[in-house]
Each structure stands twice: as structure tokens, then as C-alpha cells.
Amino acid sequence: MSDYDNRILNDADRIQAFARAIRRQVSTQDVVVDLGTGLGTYAMLAAQAGAKRSIGIEFDSIINVARQIALQNNLDVEFIRGDALDVELSERATLLIFEDFSSGLLDGPAPPLLAAARKQLVAPSCRILPQGAELEIAPVASQRAHDMAFPNRADDYTCYGLNFQPLQYITQNSVHHIRSPEDLALLADPVVVLRHSFEEDLPQKWAADVTFELAAEQTLAGVCLWHNLVVDEQNRYSNAPGEAAIGGQYFFAIPEVWDVKPGQRLRCEVAFQRISVDGFWRWNLQLFEHQSETACRTSTGNTFAASPITSAAMNAFYQDEVISLTSRAKLEALVLSAADGNKSIREIHEILQEHAPEMHEDSLEFVLGVLENRRLATAVVN
To answer: In a designed cystine with 35, which of 98, 206, 237, 353 is the match (CB 3.0 to 4.6 A)?
Structure first.
């Protein structure tokens, strides 16, 4: 059981908001699918609420613990271990539960996973919990968050006798994930910059432009972005800075803190664009004096610039280079080619033993590592 599972289980506000919504929404005619079920909490609550069928889908081995918990509570829940994109259901979901969003809502695996689930797992009239979500943003003061974002700024990135200066550029163009440092203070009221209904797919491209009036003399460290979940009409959960914010916030930090005064304005432009399986954030922060139309301080960032695969590196790669697999990679390829949908793990193991007898007792562990830990294969167990 991971620390994350423990944190989620102990987040009473979040669990209770979903529990109340599940009791309100589930009927005896519902086929409920809890996507990314983890410990199976919501799937079991749906079974308690009287669902015709309650199904939990999870890739991680934590699903084995979920099965034990369901048995302990005498609940009839079907648990499927596998990649949700490969799961086929005999009966499509009429209620889908999913809550594993990133702090920024738009990035990470959640958006494409939900889009795929909409095509593969749910009935046309399926409802979704949560029903919607919001993105909120606010300028913040927090020396602790700034120190976490720029831990070496005072030492000009020299340590252990080495100069790590290239890290500064990467750090400036990175979105930092924080969990409500104790000294974090909002310097203006948060503004909702996106309202989304999960009746539709999350946007691939999004941008916001908001200006804050600063009312206090403080030290600006950057801006925070977080999501709120509209679980249903009567239940919400906020991931805003505070003790209950298990998921944390995204922190767009400025390299050097700014001393700000009442009457100044902070303009925040934040944008996201998904490319392939993930995406990139960019931001532009501008500080203005009360009457001025010209910024007195500016800070920008773009996570594409922080990517280790720079354009220079891509230009240096020649597509006609001949690639040779290592001996270990060849064995991995053998295991994957044997996993053709017809052979059991035992049969795949025997094939590996035949080709690599020197592995002896480590061969089964190797097979399981390729098939499971690398998330390249799935198995369905009811």
C-alpha cells in the first residue's frame, strides 16, 4: 500500500463528498465502473448503495488488497486488474466514477483515459462522477515553496565542486508541484479560469488571462493553480491550498521573489496544450504600477523549454543510425512476443527458460517484471 493510498483514504472531505454523491446517484439498475479503483472504496460504496453491478478497474497490485477488503465487508464487487484501455465489459457502465486528476486537471493521463473510457466502457447515457471541475488560480507568497523550486539559487548552482548552472534554466521553465506549505498565503482572491462538464472531453488546448489587484505589501513568490471537483449538484471538493488539499497545487514560480505593494496589478497569462500523451504549460507574469500600462517586472516560463529532449538534441540524432538491442532487451522482446493472448504466464516462463537457461530461479521474476511492472500487458481476473 503506497503513501498516496494512505493519504487518499485519510482525506475524509474527499471520500465523504463522493460517498454522499454515490448514495444520491446510484440506483438498482446501475452498472457502476470505478476507474482506477485503488483500494476499491467507491466501488464498494456503490455496491452498498444497491448497484446492480459494481466493477473496479485497476492496473496496480493494490487491487488484491481491494478484493480482500470487499470480502471482509461481504460486498459483491467485481475487480478487474488491467489497463482500462484494454478491458472489455459484457455490460457497459451507466455510472462512471473517476477522480485521479492532476493538480492542473488538463495534463497527465486522466484526459485521454476518460476519453477512451467514454468510447469503450460506458453506455451512451452514462453519468460521470465527478460531474464537472474548475481550475482556480491566485498569486501567492511562500518562501518555503520558492526555496523548494529554487534550492540552489543563492549558490549559483555550484556544489560538490561542480557547476550545475544548466539546471537553472530547466527550473525556471518547470511547473513545481507543492502541497500547501505552512507559510503559503494568497495575495488576492482566487479566480476561476475554467469551468468544465465531464459530459465532454477535457480541452486539448486552453488559455487564461486574468489580472489581480494586490491589496497588501508582501513578497510575491509566483502563482498557484489547482482544481475543484463538482462531484454532483450537492457535493464539491476543493484542492485549494489548505490541510485537505491532498493532491497539492501547481506552482509557477518566479526566479527571484518580488516585493509588491497595495495598488499594484499582477497580470497572469497561463496556457496549456496537449501534445501526444502529455502536454506543455506556458506562463507569463507581469507586474504593473497602479496607473501604468507598462510592466515593471516580468517572468515567463514554458515547460517545453525544460524538456531534456531539446531541439539541438533532436537535430543531432540521425534517423538512419542502426540500433542494436542489449542482451536483456532481447529477452524482454522474447517475453513480449510470447505474450500473444493465447499463452499463460507459465508457458511464457517455459519459453524464456528454454532460451536463457542461465537465468535459473530469476527467470519467473524477470517475466513478471516485463509483463506487469513495465505496464505492457494486462490480465483480467474476476
So the answer is: 98
> CATH second-level architecture of 133-315?
Distorted Sandwich (2.70)
Over the stretch 212-225, which tens digit does the pLDDT of each residue have?
999 889 999 999 99
CA distance 32 to 122: 9
Alpha helices per DSSP H over the chain = 3-9, 12-25, 41-48, 63-72, 110-120, 143-149, 166-172, 311-315, 327-338, 345-355, 363-368
Q: Return d(Cα 304, Cα 280) in angstroms, integer.
A: 6
What is the 3 state secondary structure string of 314-361? HHCCCCCCCCCCCHHHHHHHHHHHHCCCCCCHHHHHHHHHHHCHHHHH
Residue extents of the structural domains in the chain = 3-97, 133-315, 327-373
Q: Print burial letters for 259-297: b (CB count within 10 Å at least 16), e (below 16).
A: ebeeebbbebebebbbeeeebbbbbbbbbbeeeeeebeb
pLDDT band at 361, cuts 50/70/90? low
pLDDT band at 380 (very low <50, low <70, confident <90, very high): very low
Burial code of 90-99, b = ≥16 C-beta within 10 A, e = fewer?
eeebbbbbbb
Choose among 118, 104, 150: nearest CA to 35: 118
**What's the CA dihedral at 210, 215, 218, 222 to 10 degrees?**
-10
Whole-prediction pTM: 0.79
Helix (H, G, I), strand (E, B) or coil at 196: strand
CATH number of 3-97: 3.40.50.150
Residue-wise pLDDT tens digits, 127-156: 999 999 999 999 999 999 999 888 765 456
